[in-house]
Amino acid sequence: MAVLLGLDVGDVRIGVAVSDALGSGAHPLCTLTRTNRQRDITAIGDLASIHEVERIIIGLPVSLDGTLGAQAEKVQKFGNRLSEGLNIPVEFWDERFTTSEAEDILDRVNVDPKDRKKIIDQVSAVIILDEYMRSNAGEA
Predict the structure, then answer these.
(1) Which residue of 69, 91, 123, 138 has the lowest C-beta tally within 10 Å?
(2) What is the pLDDT of residues 62-85, one digit of tens each?
(3) Residue 61 half-sphere exposure, CB side, CA atoms within 13 Å?
């Protein structure tokens, strides 16, 4: 199975998760603070190189009614530029409810509310990547 990088892309931060080589699970990696598009792409490229990533999965903020709004379009544009810049395939994955699911997880493990901002994007990236891998199990 290929090593995958999962991204939860926001305007201020990008949560990053990585799968293991067996595709058995995703693990939080880091949260990148966005600076500019080229630096963001370079930082993700460095992580992709270190972890020998073969594909990047980006959470797509789909509206509850299934439509793509302005934020989804920004994420798609960034993902397409990321793929071109790194020469790594990018796939988009519906990320509806991942933030609320991440908040529930952080509640269950008693993460202090003041510390959540530092890790919630990573947890969201893990959820995106886990859901993608479960949905695509057996397709390696």
Answers:
(1) 138
(2) 887 888 888 999 999 999 999 999
(3) 16
Whole-angstrom distance, CA of residue 134 vs CA of residue 109? 23
Kindly give the parts of the chain with pLDDT less than 70: 1, 101-102, 106-107, 111, 138-140
User: 16 to each of 8, 56, 63, 64, how far by Cα in Å?
Assistant: 7, 10, 22, 24
Q: Is the dihedral angle over the CA atoms 104, 127, 75, 86 positive or is it negative?
A: positive
pTM above 0.85, yes or no: yes
Encoded amino acid at 62, one letter: V
**What superfamily in CATH does domain 4-135 come from?**
YqgF/RNase H-like domain (3.30.420.140)
